[in-house]
Amino acid sequence: WESLILSTVFVTGRGIIVQMAQTPKKLVGVTATYEPLTTGQSVTLKYRTDSDLNNVSGWVTVFTDSTVGASNHQAVTIESTNGTLVDMYNEIQFRIESYGGAVITGMEYGAQVVDKQLY
């Protein structure tokens, strides 16, 4: 499963939705959901940002879950290295790879607007 290129939707305190394609953002966390995994199944979640959207090898692996019985996985770091998720992007794309017949049912992500205003 692969998402479209997302520029992030920001919901204000009043509930107004503002799309900000050129506003810098920080990825806070990601979640993948799927039918409960069985032996031999796994799910890998990756992302790439606007600086790598045309780069086939630009995908960053956030996590791979092969826990039997698991139906979702959340991450706030790159789990293989405990590194931080991307801290500056304008647009982002996600890919969830299914192995062994795992059935993906959804994904969520959280982002924060990076305030670069001088005042």
Can you offer a commentary on this structure?
It is elongated, with a radius of gyration of 15 Å. The model has no long low-confidence stretch (mean pLDDT 84). Strand 7 (77-78) and strand 8 form a beta hairpin. With 119 residues, it is an all-beta fold. It has strands at residues 9-11, 17-19, 25-34, 42-49, 60-65, 72-75, 77-78, 83-84, 92-99, 104-113. The strands form four sheets. A three-stranded antiparallel sheet has the order 6-3-10, with no helix packed on it. It has a three-stranded antiparallel sheet with strand order 5-4-9, with no helix packed on it. A two-stranded antiparallel ribbon has the order 1-2. The chain is built from no helices and ten strands.
Structural class by secondary-structure content: mainly beta
Termini separation = 41 Å
Number of strands: 10
Spatial extent as radius of gyration: 15 Å
Global shape: elongated
The number of helical segments is 0
How are the strands of the largest sheet arranged? 6-3-10
Helix content: under 10%
Chart the SSEs and their pairings.
Elements: E1 9-11, E2 17-19, E3 25-34, E4 42-49, E5 60-65, E6 72-75, E7 77-78, E8 83-84, E9 92-99, E10 104-113
Antiparallel strand pairs: 1-2, 3-6, 3-10, 4-5, 4-9, 7-8
